[in-house]
Amino acid sequence: MNQVRTFFVVICISILAGCAEFRTVTEQDWPSESAGLTPELALLYREVAISSSALHSLDGYADIWIKTPRRQERVYSNIQLKRSEDMRIIISAGILGWPVADMLFRTDSLFVHDMLNNRLLVGRNTPDNMEKILGMRSGYEFLSDALFGVVRLQEPLRAIESVKTGAGKVSYTIRTASGKQEVLVDPLTKTIEALQVYDRSERLVIEMHFRKFMTSRVAGASVTLPKEIELALYDQRLEGNGAHEMVIVYDERQLNPEGFTIRYRVPEKTRVVNLDRVGILPWM
Predict the structure, then answer these.
(1) Which own/partner pairs from 187-192 qualify as long-range (CB within 8 Å, at least 24 positions apart)?
(2) Predicted confidence (pLDDT) per residue in 64-75, tens digit
(3) Residue 97 CA to chain centroid, in angstroms?
(4) Does domain 24-277 have CATH number 3.30.930.10?
(5) What SS3 class is residue 215?
(6) What is the value of pTM for the model shown?
(7) CA–CA distance from 152 to each of 14, 85, 91, 192, 204 (Å)?
(8) How does the average pLDDT of the chain come out, rounded?
(9) 21, 73, 173, 247: which could form a disulfide with 162 (CB 3.0–4.6 Å)?
(10) Residue 133: what are its φ and ψ, rounded to 5°?
(11) Are 170 and 164 in contact (CB under 8 A)?
């Protein structure tokens, strides 16, 4: 009987420990040795820039951790995404994993079915409204790429200001219209492992890390994407100063699934609320 009781206690402790685990953004090492933009490194930049061009849709399940100066939450989600088009996220929370929110993101508008309060929040797709929903003040295109685990490198080679190497990695510092960005690349796998975005005052505003890469066949080509995505934004307004972090860990996902469409049904008999007039939305 004592052995059974001990076993039961161990199992309970293990379950509680698993529930208590909370993921946050970790540190990333960057190379420090200056290097010139050689033909080989220029080719690497071009190859990395087009590596995600074949991706256009995703259907997957992921754990999401959100941490801001005022709250921290862990939710489970079904993420449905059509790149540069619509995105749907169904949020489940709590021990039993009940659905609590069904969200549709369009390039110009947002629809959030708040199941906890039986209301439909409708508003513009703005950084303020993104922060209310997800705790991250982000543009739609950037968030869409972040959930995919990709970075758009649209600047030409002449925008590269410096290159550094070290520990088997390469980093590019790239001048952009809004400031600059630094990209960390693994030259062997030709994948982007980290991104830092700076404004014109050279203040860090966005940081992303990509980990645990997996290779899939997409449109007849091999595409390597991270299973884990870490995102930190530092230019937030609604929930105080300091980093706002999101960690996404995919359990499973399909890339470019055949016949994939996003179907969102507007719920009936719900109270319609202007999203622009509400505050932060907790989903735990």
Answers:
(1) 187/44, 189/213, 189/224, 190/44, 190/47, 190/48, 190/51, 190/224, 191/48, 191/51, 191/224, 191/226, 192/48, 192/150, 192/151
(2) 998 888 778 888
(3) 21
(4) no
(5) strand
(6) 0.84
(7) 41, 16, 27, 10, 18
(8) 86
(9) 173
(10) -85, -50
(11) yes
